[in-house]
Design goal:
heterodimer, A: about 700 residues, alpha+beta, B: about 160 residues, five-stranded mixed sheet, 6 helices, 5 strands, about 35% helix, about 15% strand, globular
Chain lengths: ~700, ~160
């Protein structure tokens, strides 16, 4: 095959854009294997799963597999770890690369031992010929072995030959975390390291009017004060000295502020904004369908904070004209481009190295603090600077999950079947992740506050089929007439970006709440009603499975205190299938007592990892749905600490039971975000089952329940 | 000007201002990274350590108040190279997603079990009221603590 022909050939997963085998794997003479993932650990267990895949395909013991930290100097560029794509992109790439590496090793062994390939078998890196002669991977491997482009001709193992993939291998990172061993970027310590803090403006529109820098420089331990436009940072020898200098700076800085925020925290302000409208699904004519009953409903979701338990953190050093940055960013390669652009250096002069952070659930402050650290490191050239965001920094400045409004309409025929369906959504685009495309634009926060400011990166909306604000807006159900319209709101008064499931949370909340409202109007059981409009057998299977697990009884009514509800979605209409049932108890507050879920993510690399992520998604969404909304007035974000933004606490946490439907013959499907939409709707449906009231505006606080019961 | 701290059974001389939060001293002077910064406001529990038998947020405890007390951090739980039953249970139950909250929660649980070896479900949940978990691992964490409590009562 010519170079041009092989270059045009599509390779599986991220192999397509990172085609050399030695970009992904290295067989070491010391009996270990190093894999080079471009996807990063964000608490979803991906590194353990990738190690399983590599060990499986190579036929080596799991303990021999090392995973190199993702580093722009040597790792494959897999873009951003997001969208539940890591197994489908990185896992698939490593699967094929490892299978091919095994074949190359076998070919070498055959030559070395003077036997044909069929006579060879492999166990834990030892290749044995039928006659008894053997040689190991470690003896055969050298730099040339994998120095070639992948062909993806080697077939990965079929389900019958798998012994690691598909099993609940324990997470390799948990033992260190339960013993307090350094595990996170927050724990990184380098010789001579200084501590930095950034004085953030009090509001989006604020401009620094005055600051007594000498007063800050005179504080104990302060080594540098950086002021560039409205960007102010302090650097000190000891961490508490940096924190005290920040507190002093907050007291003495003078700002000019302006009103830039909406007049209301009710997401319906979006309905009055300028939009770009696009019909994304059209079938028949919903308005013309003859109907026995018509229904309409409007649902809203407020701005939700990622609220990572650890405020974002980064360490940077600037020496010999080069920057090295340690960060928990989900995308080290685009971040590198963004940093280079803002710092005014060529990309080659910036190295970005991933170190794990706390759960981020999307685009939080991780990229921003990386720029902060680099800017402060530049001022103390040669010494590393660690910048730890304060709790207030993270709450006030992280990009939130966008507020959304969804209007539904539907029509039923005389038999109670849905004959028409419309879905209209209003939302900003759901991503401002740094893309590093330059041109005076930057995705990192400090860049917009500099004397010569960069233009903040505008919101992007990942295109369909995956989608952004319109993710999961097209229903999986089959209706004869439907229309789905995305009203993309251009103005972004609050900083927004990707939050777990993107538009999926609000769109599925609306769809699944509305399915229940239609079922109620049709006098039908919610489970039976959904199955009636759903042909996809895997979708039907998760609904039937969860109903069985929960002991769902058709037509069962709540008793005024307890009730149950169901929600279902196929994430992005092409990833995992998830059905969730929750049981609520309505007392002084709404409490979710129990939840059940069934998930089909195709081939499950690690079934316990799937369960863990699904349990977590359910519990996190219970918190979003019952408690969470970012608060603001006309000028300032008012959400500053956990007191202002309570999340679900241990006394309130539900019992959760997740069933994984493993399909080893199927391709793996992205699974980390599948529960966010279904859980929100299941709660609303359970509340209706319990109390007979329909809540359509998240969060379902006590006040809203009381108002609904009264009204 | 030095302050003497007793941490995990060892004495340390620390040269820091008396009002320095214990959390920074543990992490930066003693290099014990297990107590974590989550808020610095005593609201999230990620920095929880045990002081004279009680679970305390170390971000909220000045060095001067920590002096003269017996302080235990997560690094001090394992005895004679053997993991504490709580640590073993968290591994066995895979009770972590990002894991950032876990060391603080284990310390809160250790303090609870130290004074109440047979807690009810409500008592366990109440003891963790000041410990936040954002990933939603609550269910597994509670199961791990129940498991450890059972093991400890058996004397294993």
């Amino acid at each position: 095959m010519t170079d041009r022909q092989s270059a045009a050939r599509r390779l599986p997963g991220s192999l397509d854009t990172n085609r050399r085998l030695d970009r992904w794997l290295r067989i070491n003479r010391d009996g270990t294997v190093t894999a080079f993932p471009g996807k990063v650990e964000i608490g979803q267990g991906i590194l353990t799963a990738l190690a399983q895949i590599v060990a499986e395909e190579l036929d080596v013991a799991l303990e021999r597999v090392r995973l190199a930290p993702t580093d722009t100097s040597y790792s494959p560029d897999e873009g951003v770890t997001s969208g539940s794509r890591s197994i489908q992109e990185g896992g698939v790439a490593l699967r094929h690369a490892a299978a091919e590496a095994r074949e190359l090793l076998l070919a070498r062994a055959a030559a070395k031992l003077g036997v044909s390939l069929e006579q060879l078998s492999v166990a834990d890196g030892v290749i044995t010929a039928r006659g008894g002669a053997s040689v190991t991977y470690w003896e055969l491997a050298d730099e040339s072995l994998l120095a070639r482009e992948a062909s993806a001709d080697a077939a990965p193992k079929p389900p019958s030959q798998r012994s690691l993939v598909g099993t609940a291998v324990p997470r390799r990172d948990i033992p260190a975390k339960v013993t307090g061993a350094p595990s996170y970027v927050q724990d990184l310590e380098l010789p001579g390291m200084l501590h930095g803090r950034v004085l953030r403006p009090p509001s989006y529109g604020a401009r620094l009017a005055g600051l007594d820098e000498p007063e800050l420089r005179a504080l104990p331990g302060v080594v540098a004060v950086v002021r560039d436009g409205s960007f102010v940072g302090v650097v000190a020898e000891r961490e508490e000295q940096a924190v005290r200098a920040l507190a002093r700076a907050r007291r003495i800085a003078r700002w000019e502020e302006s009103e830039t925020l909406p007049a209301t925290t009710d997401p319906r302000f979006l309905l009055g904004e300028q939009t770009e409208d696009e019909v994304i699904s059209r079938k028949g004519d919903p308005a013309a369908a003859p109907a026995a009953k018509r229904l309409e409903a409007e649902y809203t979701r407020p701005y939700i904070a990622h609220a990572s338990l650890a405020p974002s953190c980064a360490v940077a050093i600037f020496e010999a004209g080069r920057y090295t940055v340690w960060t928990h960013s989900q995308g080290v390669f685009p971040l590198r481009r963004d940093l280079a652009h803002v710092l005014g250096v060529e990309e080659e002069r910036v190295a970005v190295i991933h170190a794990e952070g706390a759960g981020c659930y999307g685009h939080n402050g991780a990229d921003d603090v990386a720029l902060d650290a680099a800017l402060l490191a530049r001022a103390v050239a040669g010494r590393p600077v660690r910048v730890q965001w304060m709790r207030e920094d993270e709450f006030m400045w992280e990009p939130y999950g966008p507020a959304m409004v969804v209007r539904m309409s539907g029509a039923l025929d005389a038999q109670g079947n849905i004959v028409a369906w419309t879905h209209d959504l209003w939302s900003n685009g759901h991503s401002t992740r740094p893309s590093g495309r330059g041109g005076g634009v930057a995705g990192t926060l400090a860049a917009r506050h500099l004397e010569r400011p960069f233009t903040p990166q505008a919101t992007g909306n990942p295109p369909l089929p995956g989608g952004g604000s319109h993710r999961n807006a097209i229903p999986l159900y089959e209706f004869p007439n439907q229309r789905v319209t995305n009203h993309l709101v251009k103005r972004t008064p609050l900083r927004v970006s990707a939050l777990r499931s993107l538009g999926g949370n609000a769109n599925v909340f609306a769809i699944e709440s509305f399915m229940d409202e239609l079922a109620h109007a049709a006098g039908a059981d919610p489970v039976e009603f959904r199955l009636r409009h759903l042909r996809d057998p895997r979708a039907r299977a998760v609904i039937e499975t969860v109903a069985r697990q929960a002991g769902w009884r058709a037509g069962e009514k709540g008793d005024g205190v307890r009730g149950r509800g169901i929600g279902f979605a196929r994430y992005k209409n092409l990833a995992c299938y998830v059905a969730v049932i929750v049981e609520v108890e309505a007392g002084n507050e709404i409490t979710v007592r129990r939840a059940w879920a069934a998930i089909d993510a195709g081939m499950a690399v690690n079934p316990d990892g799937l369960k863990n992520q699904t349990e977590g998604g359910i519990i996190q969404t219970v918190s979003w749905t019952l408690k969470e909304a970012v608060r603001y007035d006309r000028t300032r974000i008012l959400t500053r600490s956990w007191d202002d933004y309570p999340i679900l606490a241990f006394p309130e946490a539900p019992e959760v039971e997740v069933t994984v439907i493993d399909r080893p013959e199927e391709p793996p499907l992205g699974a980390g975000e599948g529960a966010q939409g279904p859980t929100a709707a299941a709660i609303a449906n359970a509340i209706h089952n319990a109390l007979g009231v329909r809540l359509r505006d998240m969060p379902f606080t006590r006040e809203k329940v009381v108002a609904a019961l009264a009204g | 000007m030095g302050i003497t701290l007793e941490v995990n059974g060892r004495k340390h001389e620390v040269a820091a201002e008396p009002e320095t939060p214990l959390l920074y001293v543990l992490r930066n002077d003693l290099k014990l990274k297990g107590a974590r910064f989550g808020c610095g406001l005593g609201q999230c529990g990620a920095c929880t350590v045990i002081v004279d038998g009680r679970a305390v947020p170390s971000c909220d405890l000045p060095l001067s108040a920590a002096a003269g007390k017996r302080i235990t951090t997560i690094e001090g739980l394992a005895a004679d190279g053997k993991l504490h039953p709580l640590q073993q249970a968290f591994i066995a139950e895979q009770a972590a997603q990002c894991g950032y909250c876990v060391s603080g929660i284990i310390m809160s649980a250790a303090a609870l079990l130290g004074s109440n070896p047979d807690p009810t479900e409500e008592e366990i949940r109440a003891a963790l009221k000041g410990n936040l978990c954002r990933c939603g691992t609550h269910h597994r964490i509670l199961r791990a603590i129940r498991r450890a409590a059972g093991e400890m009562r058996k004397g294993t």
